[in-house]
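Section 5.1 Outputs to date
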Amino acid sequence: MAKIDKSKYTKAEIKQIRLEKRIRKLAKQNKINDPNQIKNNVLVLKHGSKYSAEYVNKMYKMVARNITLPFKFYCLTEDPSGLLPNINIIDLPKQIAVSGWWFKPYIFSSDIDIDGTILYIDLDMVICDNIDKLFTFAPKEYCVLRDFTRSMRPNWERYNSSLIKFEKGQLDFVWKRFQRDSINIMRKHFGDQDYLWEVTQGQARLWPDHWIRSWKWEVRSDRKYAPGGSKGNRTFDTIEDCVAPNECCIVAFHGDPNPHRCNDPFILDKWHKI
């Protein structure tokens, strides 16, 4: 592999070049010459101003650093500005007036321009170890998280929609039903994962709990917020030198604070510095 002439590029450009070389190397190792043969797909959703392009780019970089399988990366968004060139863009549907997490049912549409296995990841997740097993676990099955309320109620079985694996078109009925009755569904349910629980209860294979942990409820010991922080701008009251447990490959930042407002050393290393 030819060395990069660092005098010709910025640090950001050098990182991008290295990522592109790594992806090409993964494809070569798996004897894949045609990008259309790649069936492992990572999908994220970016809508509005809650998450910046930085969150999408960091997710792409975290995936690239923590996988040995060839993959494609997609972002479902209405605003692709600032996204890295290796990120494939899918336009948000315009036929239904929704916002925020209510765009998520569209990921199940058979019309989405992705072919193969889809691993959907919320942007507030932090990848901290190899994620190959997320693609090889329960092939062709619909997989979803057990909601993090499990940390307080061990028998809790409801779903959390921040990490979902499925085959394209496998759950098309989730989107079609939402299309037909979106207004009533949004009135009835607090969020998309409540709707997902209602229509797919008992059909999902649950990810092993110890693979994906809640950073604030299952890793940190102090759950308190710093005084004076408003919703959306909260930080933790303390800085903890804790790490993800063995076999954990992703930690979740559901609710406040988001990763960019967490200064725990482990998150500084796995998210801020990437």
